[in-house]
Amino acid sequence: MRAATNVSRWTRRSTVLGGAALGTLLTAQLGLVTPATAVPDLVRVTSTGPSTSLAKTQNVTCPAGTTVIGGGGAITGSGLGQVGMDIVQPLMGGKAYSVTGREDENGVAGTWAVTATAVCAPAPKGLVAVTGHSAPSLGSSNWFEKSCPVGKHAIGVGGAVVGASNSELVLEDLRIHQNSVVVAGAEDGTGFDGSWWLDATAICADPLPGEQRVIDDSAFSSNALHSVTATCPAGKRVHGVGGEIVGGNGQVRLTEMRATSSTTVTVGAREDEDGFSGNWKVRAYAVCAS
């Protein structure tokens, strides 16, 4: 897939929305003990914003001396199938990770909150972020793949659906392959009368010690809610996070895609308020290393 790209150490993008909540209510750090040859001082940092019914952005900042190597987030509260994580990406020179949640065009009567979670560490060897943007689309779905520089592996991913003022566009996929990331999106069940595109960021580095990708799927069914957890093998820790909805056709929104412990990545999604008669599932990606 297509369009203009740029390569830089890190790409900064600031997202400003009405009612944006950037204050941190909770920050928790979990140190991971690793061999001397692995990425040292790995930590998982989480920040949760206030519960309101407004579009909002939550940022989480890495501790001094560390940088983002992976990240994700979650939406909690009311109307989860109507609230999309539309922007999920690193910010500010790689020192923070940002998650934006927005309601669909029908709105939500209750309140909900955004959580952002970052995996942080001193920059591993060869760390670089590469960004790209798909061409504008008038179709009901779109996808964009961004490759790492030759010889480097993808360890983290960021993405966004761009073009709507609310969550009429669904961010469905943030996949991490060995040498690239894929970001995919779709119009919601009511469609979208306009052009839109995808932003993608691949966080890349030289191959990590003991690097391994663990992929796990939920059941494939027409249940309204699906969740799955990918777990690293013994002796390995989560360095990167990814997830996707398979078969949702724009009628399912991600509610969670984040490192839930030092060894696990959890991905969850829920159907929109009209439901979805088809079968679908979610898939979790954990980039593990020793």
Structure description:
There is one protein chain. A hairpin with a 3-residue loop joins β12 and β13. The radius of gyration is 17 Å and the shape is globular. It is built from no helices and 20 strands. 0% of the residues lie in helices and 54% in strands. The chain has a 7-stranded antiparallel beta sheet, with no helix packed on it. It has a 7-stranded antiparallel beta sheet with strand order 2-3-8-5-18-19-16, with no helix packed on it. A 6-stranded antiparallel beta sheet has the order 10-13-12-17-20-15, with no helix packed on it. It has one domain. It is mainly beta and 290 residues long.
Order of helices and strands: EEEEEEEEEEEEEEEEEEEE
Outline the biggest β-sheet: 7 strands, antiparallel
Any idea what the shape is? globular
> Structural class, from secondary structure content?
mainly beta
List low-pLDDT spans. 1-37
Number of domains: 1
- Work out the helicity level: under 10%
* CA gyration radius, whole angstroms: 17 Å
Record the SSE blueprint.
Blueprint: E1 5-8, E2 28-32, E3 42-48, E4 56-61, E5 67-77, E6 83-91, E7 96-103, E8 112-121, E9 128-133, E10 141-147, E11 153-162, E12 169-176, E13 180-187, E14 197-205, E15 212-217, E16 225-231, E17 237-246, E18 252-259, E19 264-271, E20 281-289
Antiparallel strand pairs: 1-9, 2-3, 3-8, 4-7, 5-8, 5-18, 6-7, 6-11, 9-14, 10-13, 11-14, 12-13, 12-17, 15-20, 16-19, 17-20, 18-19
Features:
single chain; 290 residues; mainly beta; 7-stranded antiparallel beta sheet; 20 strands; globular; disordered N terminus
Short description:
The chain is mainly beta and 290 residues long.
